[in-house]
Amino acid sequence: MSVTPEGITNPPIDDLLAVTDSKYELVIQAAKRARQINAYYSQLQEGLLENVGPLVTPKPNEKSLSTALREINEGKVVGRQPTEEDLAAALAAREAEAEGFGGPAAPAEPNPFGEPTFDTGEQA
């Protein structure tokens, strides 16, 4: 008779680490997906559907992070690194947005109070 130990997380961390490249990537993927699931439920009440709901059937009273971890374990959510094209498109979108607010960011104005001074503890 073989008993599978029940850990804090189900699926076990070792199984999840086999799916992702590192524990840090796992944390980032799970956190982002859990936020998307929470946003989905919030928007569902408002009648908006901007986010994708759970890709696995949630268990009763299951937290969104647990649902996200199960999605990652089943291969329904896969993280990917942004490509050069993705980064260029994001930069272009950011620049276009900045132009919509009055052009590129203006250089910082000089400090109106003069140069900063530091107290060295000595009397002048």
TrEMBL record:
Entries under InterPro entries matching the protein: DNA-dir_RNA_pol_omega (IPR003716), Pol_omega/Rpo6/RPB6 (IPR006110), RPB6/omega-like_sf (IPR036161)
Record bears the keyword Protein transport: no
Stated name of the protein: DNA-directed RNA polymerase subunit omega
Role this protein plays: Promotes RNA polymerase assembly. Latches the N- and C-terminal regions of the beta' subunit thereby facilitating its interaction with the beta and alpha subunits.
Subunit and interaction comment: The RNAP catalytic core consists of 2 alpha, 1 beta, 1 beta' and 1 omega subunit. When a sigma factor is associated with the core the holoenzyme is formed, which can initiate transcription.
Organism: Sediminivirga luteola
GO molecular function: DNA binding; DNA-directed RNA polymerase activity
Family: Belongs to the RNA polymerase subunit omega family.
SUPFAM superfamilies from the UniProt entry: RPB6/omega subunit-like
Record key words, sorted: DNA-directed RNA polymerase, Nucleotidyltransferase, Transcription, Transferase
Any GO BP: DNA-templated transcription
NCBIfam families reported for this sequence: rpoZ
An example Gene Ontology CC term for this record: DNA-directed RNA polymerase complex
Annotated EC: 2.7.7.6
Reactions the enzyme catalyzes: RNA(n) + a ribonucleoside 5'-triphosphate = RNA(n+1) + diphosphate
Disordered as annotated region, ranges: 95-124
Biased composition (Low complexity): 104-116
